[in-house]
Amino acid sequence: MAAKRGTKTSMKNMERELLCPVCQEMYKQPLVLPCTHNVCQACAREVLGQQGYIGHGGDPSSEPTSPASTPSTRSPRLGRRTLPKPDRLDRLLKSGFGTYPGRKRGALHPQVIMFPCPACQGDVDLGERGLAGLFRNLTLERVVERYRQSVSVGGAILCQLCKPPPLEATKGCTECRATFCNECFKLFHPWGTQKAQHEPTLPTLSFRPKGLMCPDHKEEVTHYCKTCQRLVCQLCRVRRTHGGHKITPVLSAYQALKDKLTKSLTYILGNQDTVQTQICELEETVRHTEVSGQQAKEEVSQLVRGLGAVLEEKRASLLQAIEECQQERLARLGAQIQEHRSLLDGSGLVGYAQEVLKETDQPCFVQAAKQLHNRIARATEALQTFRPAASSSFRHCQLDVGREMKLLTELNFLRVPEAPVIDTQRTFAYDQIFLCWRLPPHSPPAWHYTIEFRRTDVPAQPGPTRWQRREEVRGTSALLENPDTGSVYVLRVRGCNKAGYGEYSEDVHLHTPPAPVLHFFLDGRWGTSRERLAISKDQRAVRSVPGLPLLLAAERLLTGCHLSVDVVLGDVAVTQGRSYWACAVDPASYLVKVGVGLESKLQESFQGAPDVVSPRYDPDSGHDSGAEDATVEASPPFAFLTIGMGKILLGSGASSNAGLTGRDGPAASCTVPLPPRLGICLDYERGRVSFLDAVSFRGLLECPLDCSGPVCPAFCFIGGGAVQLQEPVGTKPERKVTIGGFAKLD
């Protein structure tokens, strides 16, 4: 009993999966759309009719054709179908929908029937045949029927042939597609007729064919096309439509899909605690969402009320200013009116002057008339130059609220910053990693940033990917100190403001140098010719200027000429371990050699440096001698990479660039473009030096080197040229972020 109650409970919880997305009722004869969603056949026909497609409602024989197939027993949805208007129908027919006289079947441009799937909200291509080319989901029909029986939806199944009131059905007939009571079944299946051979079934509301039939050929499906992901019959299999497709027997597809579904279902059932935990977490998130939403509403209301209070206070102050200005003007105008009224005959100042004129005592008249005359003179002048004492206009009190109205109109919620864009031109790895980024033009501002990084060349650990994180990085650049050498780092950035964290930037991958970075300066005591070489004040750049020997060589092109080699050394010597440094060579340089060599040999070469003899008159150019063969196996004391005119000369062997004299054999040599920066990696113990593209860390050349003594960086110039050592990243003033002691991020 408990198991049965559990089954009923699970069936009730499953009801949502059995509702058609169109009518929100139990599926009836569901069809499988190409997008794998289901819809009732009657609903699909109704939707297509509303879309204006005529004659593509599927196979009419799919509707009940039994004696009980009366209008009252058909689906009530058929009566609600809305057909297109006649004028719209005429336009649809003329535009290519449906079949009309003059339109041939199988035209060059077949009609494309699009069905708006209500589940995925997308248009699904049904092909030329429309609903007639879709499969019925018989499995879903069986599940719906079992669900109806388990929860007793709709009560008992009644006989469709009885006179009212109908009796409860006891049998069903697949061929007749109707349910019968015992008496009606005997009546409609009399002995001695073909109907008597119909096999009775249990009463049901949905009659299905015995097997899944191909909608194109009405044959039983036997295979599954993996390419089209569609069941096919034998005729479909041999048709050109599935030519070259991977087709397997339906039994294999059945077993494979059943195993996958069983495995997935077993995993879900075995992790019910996890599901319940996530449900609780989601419910808690819902509660927090409700609380946070209410708080956000209150905050917005409070802010808007604050704006209203500020506006009300400002309104009161502005009105008070207008009121004061108005009272002042009214007072001035009132006084002016009184003055003019006193000029009327018999009143005020005029009446008083008339009485004074009646005075006959001359001294008394003079005494009184002097003051009166001044008043009369001012009144006369005011009368002649009349103008109101105050203006009636208040234009100076007009408000320009255009900017404020625009700000209020644009008032909106603060958005999180958009995903930053990492500047790949300025981001690089040397002794440290320098990361630079910027926000998109119309992105909201960010208060601070979060940098996440990890190594990609380490074995993956089980579980989610773990990132190293640095929080609250100010500015738009940062330094990551102490990276591992010979590694690949992936980095990303996201911004944060009051609204929260934004999206991450696209990942950028950086290669770190293969060895610890060697810091050094150019030594001006060795190899410096003040006439031709100029070392910068910071001793990190050197430029060679063509001197008199090169001009003389250009003058004596047809005679033997000697070109001096100018050498500049680094101020450090390597005696152990592995070291790496990088430099940039001016692409316009005539001839530059970048590399390393034994300190003693370099000094000897500088003190008695042989001139580079023109190959035209060099007696040993391109020829071997016994002395040379005797030392061919010994490691050379120098290893140089030759650069000239924006190209790198790569010889046929490691020794091709191992000398200062430039007598490299040109045979089997090639040139490659000069990268923005060159990297040199010295392995003292192995006696090897590698030349790399310092941007991509692609190897250019590897040479042997005699490491029997201290080894120095060296730079050689013939003609004009310039070299710039790459500065350590740590010298930049940007913020430093140390790798170590970081927080882990799942």
TrEMBL record:
Residues 416-515 form the Fibronectin type-III domain. It holds the Pfam family zf-RING_UBOX. Residues 60-76 have a biased composition (Low complexity). The keyword Zinc-finger applies. Residues 54-86, 607-631 are annotated as: Disordered. One of its GO terms (cellular component) is main axon. Residues 617-626 have a biased composition (Basic and acidic residues). PROSITE patterns: B302_SPRY, COS, FN3, ZF_BBOX, ZF_RING_1. One of its GO terms (biological process) is neuron migration. Residues 209-250 form the B box-type domain. Keywords: Coiled coil, Cytoplasm, Cytoskeleton, Metal-binding, Repeat, Zinc, Zinc-finger. It is found in: Cytoplasm, Cytoskeleton. Residues 500-734 form the B30.2/SPRY domain. Residues 357-414 form the COS domain. Belongs to the TRIM/RBCC family. This is Tripartite motif-containing protein 46 isoform X2. It comes from Acinonyx jubatus.
